[in-house]
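Board notes (copied after class):
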Amino acid sequence: MRIRLLSVLFLTSLFAFANPCLAELPAPIESENGDYELTLREVSRRNDVLTVKAKLKKLDNEYSHQLRFWISDNTFLLDEEKGVKYFVLEDKERNKLASPGKNIRSSGDTVSFWVKFPAPPLEKKSISIYFSGYEPLDDVAIEDK
């Protein structure tokens, strides 16, 4: 039984190591004011578009006000090696290609969201992600689909 369990663990870890799609995402981070937690769920590139999927969780219960979360102009990707910023894609009417604003009411409430960016070149395998009010998420692995 123990040998079988060790074999399964070894094969699972070998598969994860050999498959870059299973790269670990960064740990959740708190907002600068400590009221919210941001967790990345996926960073993937398909054709010329990079999609970031994440969730936001309200941590405090001190304030019961409702927050409307939306993607700001200070949300972008950064290729630090080349010094290139990638801003949120927009449609012809200049609407951001991202989840619509969402309401967060109480402690423990969670909202999921997504954001679309122009994809960096295929040889770029990781990127830094900036959300307003949070420290940067550096060297986040990009999953190619």
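Comment from the instructor: Residues 69 and 102 are 5 Å apart (CA to CA). The chain has one helix and eleven strands.
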